[in-house]
Amino acid sequence: MHHQPARCDELIFSPTVAVHVADVYAHEFSGANTEVPPPQLDHALLAKLGFAERIELWHDCCKEIITA
Known about the structure:
The chain has 68 residues and is an all-alpha fold. The protein has helices at 15-30, 43-48, 55-67. It has one domain (5-67). The chain is built from three helices and no strands.
């Protein structure tokens, strides 16, 4: 479900949404070159949940942690 968190029954911030965001950034910053398209952040869902303004902060925090 973390690849498509909007398909969950309840649209609330949940572990599924947290894993979705972390998974997208882990793929982005891992440097892994795979044939499979990387997961995409569900901006629409995050906006519905009221987190649109936090996306950049989460991105920067994850980048700092993963690339440290």
